[in-house]
Design goal:
Blueprint lengths: L4 H25 L7 E5 L6 H11 L1 E5 L5 E5 L5 H8 L3 E3 L13
Length: 106
């Protein structure tokens, strides 16, 4: 079944609004950034495998989010946010902001 240009535009618009709303919730819930632990928000069009591989380059994976493009990472050197950005994350939030991503390690 072929999609019209209008349907494709609407689908892309809805996807963009969903990503921006998720980002707003995560950023609003985030406290002062912890230099050791953060949730990296990777491009939503990446596969879960690509996200996990990229997050693994930023540090040790602490938790996976309910959304397939969010991963909580720990960097023992205290440079987690810079390392997430270098690995391809669009942005990162503190662990408190990742509560919307799924279960958290205690």
């Amino acid at each position: 079944m072929k999609r019209s240009a209008r349907e494709t535009t609407v689908a892309l618009g809805v996807s963009l609004v969903t990503v921006l709303a998720t980002a707003a919730v995560l950023l609003a819930a985030s406290r002062t950034p912890d230099p050791y632990v953060a949730a990296g928000v990777f491009p939503p069009w990446w596969t879960r495998t690509a996200v996990i591989a990229a997050a693994g380059q930023a540090g040790s994976i602490r938790d996976l989010g309910a959304a397939p493009f969010i991963v909580v990472v720990r960097d023992p050197e205290g440079r987690v946010q810079a390392r997430l950005r270098a690995a391809g994350a669009l942005f990162s939030v503190g662990p408190a902001g990742s509560a919307a991503c799924g279960p958290q390690e205690t």
